[in-house]
Amino acid sequence: MAFWKKADNRKKHQDQVRQYLVEDEQLFHTYGLMIDFVALTDQRVIFVEKSWVSKRSEVVSIPYSKIEEIALLKDRRMSISNPVRISTRAKDHQLNLIKGNDSVGFYRQLSRQMMNAGG
């Protein structure tokens, strides 16, 4: 599983996400997903959703204040990802963090940012 551990906070992901940051927005961390990456900033969560069957992809940006619920899905079986679900009023997004990433750290950081945005 050593290959997967290198996916956490990859410089390549940090460089890619910088094109989507607004002025004075601070990047906290990036995490490798099964297909791409997710980034946490001081303002929002940003991730790229790519299709397995087409070349289509979209950049999704969710301000922390718009997130209604997050869930860290735990599975004791052998798997190569740790799914995290982010729910907004409009949609549920499932992010498949690569095993070896700090999925609990991602969950805690996202929770902290949501609490800060709420009040």
How would you describe this protein?
This protein is α+β, with helices and mostly antiparallel strands and 119 residues long. The protein has one domain (2-118): PH-domain like (Roll), CATH 2.30.29.30. The protein has 3 helices and 7 strands; from the N terminus they run ααβββββββα. A 4-stranded antiparallel beta sheet has the order 1-2-3-4, sandwiched between helices. The chain has a 3-stranded antiparallel beta sheet with strand order 5-6-7, covered by helices on one side. Residues 1-6 have low confidence and may be disordered.
Helix content: 10-25%
Can you give the mean pLDDT? 83
Spatial strand arrangement across the major sheet: 1-2-3-4
Evaluate the radius of gyration: 14 Å
CATH homologous superfamily? Answer: Pleckstrin-homology domain (PH domain)/Phosphotyrosine-binding domain (PTB)
CATH topology name, in short, is: PH-domain like
Question: Any idea how many domains?
Answer: 1
User: How large a portion of the residues is in β-strands, by DSSP E?
Assistant: 35-45%
Number of helices: 3
Structural class by secondary-structure content: alpha+beta
SSE arrangement, N to C: HHEEEEEEEH
Number of distinct beta strands: 7
